[in-house]
Every structure is written in C-alpha cells, then in structure tokens.
Amino acid sequence: MCIVVGLAGGYWADRWLGTQPWLLLLGLGLGIAAGFVNLFRAIKHLGGFDDEAR
Fold first, then answer.
1. Residue 54, helix vs strand vs coil
2. Where do the H-state alpha helices sit in 1-54?
3. How many angstroms separate the most distant Cα atoms in the chain?
4. Is residue 47 over pLDDT 90?
5. What count of other Cβ atoms lies within 10 Å of the Cβ of residue 22?
6. Where are the domains of the chain?
7. Fewer CB within 10 A of the terminal residue: the chain, N end or C end?
8. Comparison of pLDDT for 53 and 18, the residue scoring more
C-alpha cells in the first residue's frame, strides 16, 4: 500500500509541476522505503524481538 501511495503522489506531483519522471521516482523510492520499514516492524513484532516486551 505504501508503494502505491508514494507512486500515486509522485505521479500527481509530476503532472502538477511538469517534472516528469523525477517526483514519480522519488515517490516510488519513498514508498518502497516505507514498505520495508513496515515489513521490519511486523517481523519484529511477530518474532518477539520487541525490546519493550522484555
């Protein structure tokens, strides 16, 4: 979901500002990074590696 939001936001900003494809690529990169952060948080939570639980 993060990737789609970043991609759509970059596409919209590119069309509005006329900077194709730079903001689309930036939004895609930020979406991928946010997706990895969410993935690592989920793995940490499900794996019991949460520091607060100890």
1. coil
2. 2-17, 22-47
3. 51
4. no
5. 12
6. 2-43
7. C
8. 18
Both tokens of 32, joined, read 């991928």
- Taking the C-alpha atoms of residue 13 and residue 30, their distance in angstroms, rounded to an integer, is 14
Q: Which residues contact 3 (CB under 8 A, 6 or more apart)?
A: 28, 31, 32, 34, 35
pLDDT average, residue stretch 5-34: 96
The gap between the terminal CA atoms of the chain, to the nearest Å, is: 31
* Burial category of 45 from C-beta neighbours within 10 Å (exposed 0-12, middle 13-18, buried 19 and up): exposed
50: region left, alpha or beta (phi > 0 left; psi from -120 to 50 alpha): beta
The count of residues in the chain is 54
Phi, psi angles (nearest 5°) of residue 50? -75, 125
Q: In this structure, are residues 38 and 5 in contact, taking their beta carbons and an 8 Å threshold?
A: no
